[in-house]
Amino acid sequence: MSEDTTETAVDDPSSDGCKARAVVPAHVTAFFAPARADDPAESGATGAGLALTDGIETVVTPRDGRPTPKSDNESMSGSDAESMSESDAESTPSHRITLDGDPVSIDAVEGVLARLAVPAATVRVTTHVPIAAGFGVSGGAALGAALAAADCFDLARTRRELVAVAHAAEVAAGTGLGDVVAAARGGVPVRLAAGDPNHARLDRLPARGRIEYVAFGKLSTATVLADDTQAVTTAGTAALDRLRATPTLEELFAAAREFATAADLFVPEVRDAVDAVQATGGDAAMAMLGRTVIARGTGLSDAGYDPSVTRIDPAGARLE
To answer: Were both Cys, which of 20, 85, 157, 171 would link to 152 (CB 3.0–4.6 Å)?
Structure first.
């Protein structure tokens, strides 16, 4: 990544102390090949995907030093909600994290706050996409927390450093491998080498336009990534080679369909929707990893679905 400066947001004079807001595009992965290493900075995935204008907003403000209150012992490990014991809640650092208004624990966000040694803060994450459906919410929240916390608390970190911190926290949480660097870049990022911004090599397709999607339910990224991923790696490498030979959005969707079939990742309802879109002359694929179908243009509408509508986001993660 070429950008090495941290943007500045204007403090909200109506709040006590600072208030910083980061906007991170949702990122849907079309295909990927895991690349694991002992160092999270070197771990990640090659592959390609789409950054979308529907995304994740993160607002960071200071708070006092009280332990984080929990609601119904709810927590979120990346994109999946899991239970949390009462003793865990009591030992939580004095940050308060909410997701769409509900108190939660997001491992990747907590990892960012710890790595940056952020003072007691309130982190409010708001999503405009389904959770655990292949939109990179965990990585987007981590990246947004890094950017907003650095701005709010004047942490004197470059943008590249903050993206690296968020990437490491996401990988360590086990909830993603490449969403952070891709969402930071925006557009249609192609990850040619894996890792954080100091190790990854990225390019982009010069593409834009309308994207439709339908989410049929949740799929655990952590569970899939914990399984044997050799078939995924082989299929992802082949898909990337195909896209590099013909770097177009149409070829990306074709490579994504081939990848999902070869890696045996298609779920029935997504497979049916993709087939329906293709039958009407459209272009669709499965969002990795989620029970979600994405389509170019009006593909899902033309196939009789009632999709959510978004667009490719060219800007990437930013402070507003």
So the answer is: 20
Please report whether residue 11 resides in a domain: no
Tally of domains within the chain: 2
Amino acid of residue 275: D
* 34-88 pLDDT per residue, tens: 998 999 999 999 999 999 999 999 999 998 644 333 333 344 443 333 333 333 4
pTM of the entire predicted model: 0.85
Average pLDDT across the chain, whole number: 87
Taking CA 76 as the corner, what is the angle to CA 26 and CA 15, rounded to the nearest 5 degrees? 75
150 phi-psi bin (left φ>0, alpha ψ -120 to 50, beta other): alpha
* DSSP β-bridge partners for residue 99: 102, 125
What CATH code is carried by the domain that includes residue 250? 3.30.70.890
The two three-digit tokens of residue 229, written as one number: 């991923």
3-state secondary structure of 39: coil
75 located within any domain: yes
Residue 281 amino acid letter: G
Q: Give me the CATH number covering residue 106.
A: 3.30.230.10
Residue 221, phi then psi, degrees to nearest 5? -60, -45
**Any idea what DSSP says for residue 268?**
H
Strands 20-35 and 318-319, sheet pairing = antiparallel
